[in-house]
Design brief:
Blueprint: H1 3-6, H2 11-24, H3 33-51, E1 55-59, E2 65-68, H4 70-75, H5 80-83, H6 97-109, E3 114-122, E4 128-139, E5 145-153, H7 155-178, E6 180-186, E7 191-194, H8 196-202, H9 212-218, H10 224-237, E8 241-248, E9 254-265, E10 271-279, H11 281-304, E11 307-311, E12 317-322, H12 338-341, H13 349-360, E13 365-373, E14 379-390, E15 396-405, H14 407-437, H15 439-465, H16 471-499, E16 507-509, H17 511-521, H18 523-528, E17 531-537, E18 544-546, H19 548-565, E19 574-582, E20 587-593, H20 601-604, H21 622-632, E21 636-641, E22 647-654, H22 657-660
Parallel strand pairs: 17-19
Antiparallel strand pairs: 1-2, 1-5, 3-4, 4-5, 6-7, 6-10, 8-9, 9-10, 11-12, 11-15, 13-14, 14-15, 16-18, 19-20, 20-22, 21-22
Helix pairs in contact: 2-3, 15-16, 17-19, 19-21
Amino acid sequence: MKPGRAATFGKSAAQFLVGCLRQTVPAKQHTDPSGADLLEAVKQWQQVFEHTPVMYFMVDPAGTVINVNTFGAEQLGYTPAELIGRSVLDVFLAEDRAIVRACVESCLKTVDQSHTWEIRKIRKDGSMLWVRENAKAMLRANGGPIVLVACENITERKEAENALRQSEAYLAQAQELSHTGSFGWTAKTREITWSKETYRIFQCEEGTKPNIPFMLQRIHPEDRLAVQQTTGQAAREGKDYDHEYRLVMPDGSIKYVRAVARATRDASGYVEFVGSVSDITAAKEAERRLRDSEQRFRDYAETASDWFWETGPDHRVTQVSEHSDTNTVPAGLIGLTRWDIAPDAALEPEKWRQHRAALDAHVPFRDLVYRSKDRNGQPIYVRTSGKPFFDADGAFLGYRGVCTDVTAAIRANQAEDALRKAQTELAHVTRVTTLGELTASIAHEINQPLAAVIANADACLAWLQRSPPDLKAARRSVEWIIEDGRRAGDVIRHVRALAKRSDIEMVPLDANAVVREAVALVQREMASHGVSVRMELSSALPKIFGDRIQLQQVLINLIMNGIEAMADVHDRPRELAIRSQASGEDAMQVSVSDCGTGISEQAIDRLFTPFFTTKSSGMGMGLSICRSIIEAHGGRLSAIPNQERGATFQIALPLHREEAS
């Protein structure tokens, strides 16, 4: 046995060796000086064994401990005497004992051959330690085998290895979670090493040796040159680098990555890089969506406004962002409040008081319209809306909002109001003119009830002069007088209403009643022109919502047009048909049909155009005014030629909402 091997035995082992030697050396040699030298050598080795920090065991083929050095026993918390004679399996974990048996059997089968293994042992107090065991089976002097075992405590190494494995596992998990891999690159040798996550990012089979041609093949063609230039310059200058590029995956998808590397030098002075590569595809996609969202809302805002603005806590303008296609932003706004800008602040104090109160309350506001001037000094109207913004602690920082030049819309509304007023005046003139044309009919309508009043008064006197007076008959005559007086009053009231310049009064109306009242006013005119009227009015029609006088004006105009259209008709009866009926679920229709000469195709398209007329003495405003009135009621006025003779004018009006529901 080599001297180094002798160091694997302790005190008890040395004594055992002495016994073995005594069995092999004759008794007479005990006095031989060479025998004394041998015993002295064994004694010296005994001291070496006892002071060597290695655990030594001797076990027999059955696994019984024959000897153990003191150091080895103490490492396990025992004395040598407590272990000798016990099964060596007692100091191993139950789940490892089969392995120990197999190792001992292997040693016994291969005498004088060394075997090594690592395994756990259990101390007397139950704690555990890792050992590396070197074992060899040898033959004793009597020819019997024993197994000599030297045990090295490798607990610290195992703990370090476990810690390293755990750290590597944590790192691998962290890389997987963060989609960040690591790599190493030696510029001179072009050798590359990848972590597991880097393999995943590049979609390369783990274990495959990475190389630059493969990486270039994966990199997007548009990014390859930039990557080569960046890494090449870093390798030449020995500098760190940080860049982003795209990868083209086998399925054609695009992956964005960011590579960051730190340059170092090895012992030979060559440049090496240690770095990380991160899959930033999700971040890039989020950035793209954010940009798209920002652009989308900017497009919305710019489409709906002419410029953005921002004010500070004191409500003074701090920033104005003008759109590229806008040149109406007033100049010199920075540092001013909105009421400093508006020249109408003094003219509308209540509006601005309410606005300032809203600002001081830090609440949003919408559609504030005020007058201002553009950068050229021209007066404009501005509509603005704003919303307060705050810092992370809730402190008020100011307002952000938009402004729109609404000058064109305001002026269009003003022009529309002026036009509406002019139309109202013209409609009034038309009504008065119509009344002039209907003087005979009106006089006739009033004359009839007045004549009846006189006749009934005479009859009443006659009944009273009888002896005895017929009071019942006289009372009936008085009642008739009252009824005729009311009828005359209604005619006069309707005439006054048509002649009066009054505001529009929208109320629920019975459409059939409006038709009857209009017909009553033109009854005499129809009689004088030999025109009969046939009214086909649908019963139980829901009410409409409108102005009685204006709708009567339209009907009178259409009836008079129908009478005039039949003036030259002599070969057939002159009949005017007026009908009312439902039109769908939410509208009704009134039509006026004549059997006159009709309307030509050329004229029907221009019939409602102002100043267009088919009459030699007409102004061409009647039908235009009628259409404006009907459209103001939310309805529609149209004209269609009849199949045989004449024309029909149709008025479609929406039902009163309560009635429609």
